[in-house]
Specification:
Number of domains: 1
Structural class: mainly alpha
Strand content: under 5%
CATH class: Mainly Alpha
CATH architecture: Up-down Bundle
Distance between the termini: 41 Å
Order of helices and strands: HHHHHHH
Number of helices: 7
Helix content: over 70%
Length: 128
């Protein structure tokens, strides 16, 4: 999971939280597929994967803030033109990532701040 740690510590990517969360979801999908297809979903490998993700996702509080920013962008831009199934798949992936974090208070604070901005500015994908 060195790759995950390096991803979290990438200072340039950290400046682009939406892209960062997209990369984290891609990385998680890749690791999930390796465990599923190479190791037949063997329980020990699944638990090791979950522990490793938990460890690097909690090096600092940034991942939960990035996830809040990703959700904000999703509500404004990303879900436009997507089917319900595509939207649900993306939300499932980001929730799965969120479940690997401890900084839920930071998420709530950041997401509430972004939600209030969105409400004040009347921004959402449904406004088109």
């Amino acid at each position: 999971m060195e790759r995950g740690r390096l991803l979290i510590e990438d200072k340039e990517l950290a400046k682009k939280p939406v892209l960062m969360v997209d990369k984290l979801m891609e990385f998680k999908d890749e690791i999930d597929n390796i465990v599923k297809y190479s190791f037949n979903g063997y329980n020990e490998f699944q638990q090791c994967r979950m522990k490793a993700f938990y460890k690097f996702m909690n090096q600092n509080d940034y991942p939960t803030v990035w996830i809040a920013q990703w959700c904000h962008d999703f509500m404004i831009n990303t879900c436009k033109g997507k089917s319900s199934e595509e939207i649900n798949d993306l939300l499932d992936k980001v929730i799965d990532l969120f479940l690997r974090t401890d900084g839920r208070d930071q998420f709530i604070i950041k997401y509430s701040e972004l939600l209030s901005q969105r409400l004040i500015n009347s921004e959402s994908a449904n406004d088109t």
